[in-house]
């Protein structure tokens, strides 16, 4: 039995653990080539792009605004939205938010 604190100098010889089979390298640690690494990364990138292009989510669209002189930030738009809400001039529209050809698209649920 070994010392749990590493104070003894006794180390078991290979013969104590040797079951007679020669040591062989494992296939799970095969050396990868530059070409195989490139192909793995390319395939992974393509799978990520495919996932992004299939993105769809049901949302409630409230408002579309152009950023102009008095609207320069998201905070400005939220202020305008709150003002319209107080006046009862906001109602939601059910839409599908999706990515199509690397663009965000809002598609009306009812008219498709």
From TrEMBL:
Protein name: ES8L3 protein
One annotated GO biological process: positive regulation of ruffle assembly
GO molecular function, one term: actin binding
GO cellular-component term (any): vesicle
Source taxonomy: Eukaryota, Metazoa, Chordata, Craniata, Vertebrata
Residue ranges, annotated region (Disordered): 1-28
Organism of this sequence: Pteruthius melanotis
Transmembrane segments: none
Domain of life from the UniProt record: Eukaryota
Domain PTB: 56-112
InterPro entries per UniProt: EPS8-like (IPR039801), PH-like_dom_sf (IPR011993), PTB (IPR013625)
């Amino acid at each position: 039995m070994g010392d749990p604190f590493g104070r003894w100098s006794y180390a078991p010889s290979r013969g104590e653990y040797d079951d007679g089979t020669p040591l062989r390298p494992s296939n799970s640690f095969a050396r990868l080539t530059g070409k195989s690494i490139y192909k793995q990364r390319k395939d992974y990138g393509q799978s990520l792009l495919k996932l992004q292009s299939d993105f769809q989510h049901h949302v409630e669209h409230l408002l579309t605004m152009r950023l102009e002189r008095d609207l320069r930030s998201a905070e400005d738009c939220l202020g305008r939205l709150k003002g319209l809400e107080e006046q009862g001039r906001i109602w939601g529209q059910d839409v599908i938010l999706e990515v199509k050809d690397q663009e965000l698209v809002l598609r009306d649920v009812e008219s498709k």
